[in-house]
Structures are given as C-alpha cells and as structure tokens.
C-alpha cells in the first residue's frame, strides 16, 4: 500500500483548522513568523508550502526577509524581539544560513517555547527524556503517518538510515519511545544492506538517490522514504527505488506526496500547540 502523505496531511489540517477556530474563540490567534536571510529559491519554495499550510488552517503568517549580508548580531537581535512579541507563538529561522551566521547560536537564541521546528537543545533533551516537547517536524510527521495507518512500532525492529540532527537522530528516538528496537545506519556503515534487510520499519533519510533497492528490503516491511533528491532529469525523488520497493514492502511512502506534506503539517500543529500553551 502506498501511504499518501498528501491525504493524511489534508485530514490533519482539517482537524487543526477546528482547533484554531476554538483558540480564536478563547482570544488566542496562533501566529508564525518565518525569518529568511538571503534569497535561495529552494528556501523560498519550502517557505511557500509552510505559508500555504499555515493560512489554510487559519494561522497568522508573516515572512520576514533580510539580505544575505546580515550579521549574526543583527539576526540574534531580531530573534530576541520576536521572543518577546506575543503576536507570534512560533519562530522559524529558515536554514541554511549564510556562512557568517552560526546556526547553533541562532537555534539556541529562539525561545524553546516558540521553537516550532523542535531544533533547540532544550526541546531535543525534553524529547529524549520523554517530556512534553516540540518535536522536530519530519520525525513527528513520520510517527503520525504510522499511527494513522495503525502501524505500531512496539516490538518491531526499526532501522534508520541517516543521522542528521533534524531527521535521523530524532526519528530513531521517537521510535524508541514507541518501544521499537532501533538501529542507526549512516555513511560509514559497512554492511548496510545486511542491516536494512532486518528492518520491520525502514526509515531512509540519507539523501542519496536509489540508496535502498528491492533487495535491501525485508518482504512485508514498512518503508518510509525521507529523501528529497533531484535525479539526473531534475525530477524530485527519494532515497528508495520506488518501483522495486513496491514489489517487496507492505507499506511505502512516495516522493513527492509522502513525508513532505506531513512535515509542513506538523509545523502548523506545533504552532497551534505553542499558541495553546499560552493559555496554560
Ligand atoms: N531548511 C530545510 N528544512 C528546514 C526546516 O525544517 N526548518 C528550517 N528552519 N529550515 C529548513
């Protein structure tokens, strides 16, 4: 079965729209500000998707743009002022940033209570220790897709290929929290295929076209493709050879239309949550 992230995202956004309506009746209008330094077309296209999802569910959205030449000090000051601004419950600084600005410094400057990306070390630590936290959007979207499809990770062997701070590492931790047995693989893993073939749930998040082919997948496995690659024809494709995987897997997410729409929807969900938290 192909898991349609597009379809699940649509259902989730309908629910979020209701939640926003209820919050507004209580006098809270959820707001999200995205800060973009420079004018990368890829970043602008990601932001457009985030804006569309926000506005669709009734979240107040603002894009704040600065020139590529902005200094780190200037950006930290802008973040500081949004930390204090009650109109915006979520702050997202679009990555990557120009070389003169430290991503670590920027992420740490965002108030953990407004860190709807879930990148702040406080949120990562809270997630790791099982406390309430903003979860990184892609891993949260993966878990939500599994939940809606009735796939319970408990007792299963989950293999995560890729160890980025924003996808691979937190995805493995969330699966662990759901009682999966988790193995991490990465670019230095020698016997990748031997390990991926043991996966009941396989998360491909390495950013490499055709890394996972049919022979790397256990029959009946659930395969989640997080890759966002451009192939030689410039077409968007994942890390999994889709047609081959279809022959072997029980569930498979496509690219595009799989994890991507869920990521954006989880950002909207985190923003609604941040707004709701101001009522506590
Ligand atoms: N750049 C690419 N993906 C993301 C994301 O999820 N959040 C931020 N802040 N920047 C990104």
UniProtKB/TrEMBL annotation:
Keywords: Amino-acid biosynthesis, Histidine biosynthesis, Hydrolase, Methionine biosynthesis, Multifunctional enzyme, NADP, One-carbon metabolism, Oxidoreductase, Purine biosynthesis. Its EC number is 1.5.1.5, 3.5.4.9. NADP(+) binds at residues 162-164. Pathway: One-carbon metabolism; tetrahydrofolate interconversion. PROSITE patterns: THF_DHG_CYH_1, THF_DHG_CYH_2. SUPFAM superfamilies: Aminoacid dehydrogenase-like, N-terminal domain, NAD(P)-binding Rossmann-fold domains. Residues 136-277 form the Tetrahydrofolate dehydrogenase/cyclohydrolase NAD(P)-binding domain. GO terms for cellular component: cytosol. The keyword Amino-acid biosynthesis applies. Residues 3-117 form the Tetrahydrofolate dehydrogenase/cyclohydrolase catalytic domain. It comes from the Bacteria. Signal peptide: none annotated. Gene3D superfamilies: Leucine Dehydrogenase, chain A, domain 1, NAD(P)-binding Rossmann-like Domain. One of its GO terms (molecular function) is methenyltetrahydrofolate cyclohydrolase activity. It catalyses: (6R)-5,10-methenyltetrahydrofolate + H2O = (6R)-10-formyltetrahydrofolate + H(+); (6R)-5,10-methylene-5,6,7,8-tetrahydrofolate + NADP(+) = (6R)-5,10-methenyltetrahydrofolate + NADPH. GO terms for biological process: L-histidine biosynthetic process; methionine biosynthetic process; purine nucleotide biosynthetic process; tetrahydrofolate interconversion. Belongs to the tetrahydrofolate dehydrogenase/cyclohydrolase family. Catalyzes the oxidation of 5,10-methylenetetrahydrofolate to 5,10-methenyltetrahydrofolate and then the hydrolysis of 5,10-methenyltetrahydrofolate to 10-formyltetrahydrofolate. This is Bifunctional protein FolD.
